[in-house]
Amino acid sequence: MTNAADRRQALLAEYENIKSRQLNLDLTRGKPATAQLDLSNALDGILNGDYRCADGTDARNYGGGLGIPEARQFAADYLETHPSQVMVGGNSSLQIMYQYVANAMLNGLQGAESAWQNEAKGSERIKFLCPAPGYDRHFSICEALNIEMIPVRMNEQGPNMDEVEQLLSQDPLIKGIWCVPKYANPNGVVYADEVVDRFARLGTIAGANFRIMWDNAYAEHHLSDEPPQLANLLELSDKYGTLDNAIVIGSTSKITFAGAGMAFVASSEANIKQFAEYLGISTIGPDKVNQLRHVRFLKDMTGLRALMQEHRKILQPKFELVLKHLREGLSGKTINNKALGSWTEPAGGYFILFDTQPGLAGRVVELCAAAGVKLTPAGSTWPYKKDPANTNIRLAPSFPSLKEIDEAMQVFVLCVELATLEASESAGN
Known about the structure:
Aspartate Aminotransferase, domain 1, 13 helices, 2 domains, 8-stranded mixed beta sheet, Aspartate Aminotransferase, domain 2, globular
């Protein structure tokens, strides 16, 4: 037998031994660990019977569709804009994004005649640009609303803006683009200043009522002492007269309680007014008590950043352990003169993106699952779950313990090498 065949047999024996241990490990989703949630336990009881907001209103009552004043100020500071351009809602930024796109699709952003669906004739469909690899839940919104998705390649600077601008200039049915501009899900890219500047000018070439869905979910989720800065889309859009096109979203979902935080959105005052009126049909106001307790707990951006340093103490060792296994298990190894894989080393966010040799991501995920390690399904980082090269695997190390990560990554590294050797042998190499 060849050396490669010997190595494959040795890996198979190790793999079968791992399967016999009946592991149950999960690296699928970027959830905060219990220790991170514990950092915000002081939220409970912090109001101590004082429900008065800054303007004297009672947070327990109806009303306040735009959010309480102090929460709007907090969100404005977070999103680097003005309180008049901000609305604070419930706990879910994903819900805000779905509601905004559904409103634009069905009801229109400037009256019923402006509804996106009215522009699609016959078999035509409204379309969204989807930088890929990207966030699977963004893509799910498009699928739920029958919006056609057009993948746009990501690079180290952000989306390929030449491609974005060309597509927009040619097709007025493209009504939006999804973005995670800082520590992008899943590859950790921070959009370059030039890219953000070009985004701010897209409204000058796009069709009517085009929207940039700027999901800045990880704005303060740093893993380095000198985090990269992201240019201010709202400020640049105001400069170019395209503020209506920018929809900037954030939340405290991975800062305080993931299921009980507060989410916020910023745009032009006209956009915020229209969106609040739309939401007012289905609700008489958000959970203002939760907003008030968040502001009392976090206080301001200084307080938030101090809390995020505590998150970093929990998260950074987990990311470092994943990277340690990748480096020690795969760096320098080749099969057919090609590296076994490549991966990102993000400065923040919640994910590491691993790329196998072409065509092997699905097999690696399958092998890991059979050995008791759950990974996000291959293809999830692409529209319609179709990764054209079948290489992307998203690793989410935030929730498991260090011990669980250590065990899971031993399995992962083994499965990458085993899948690559299998493919090489099948190809007759």
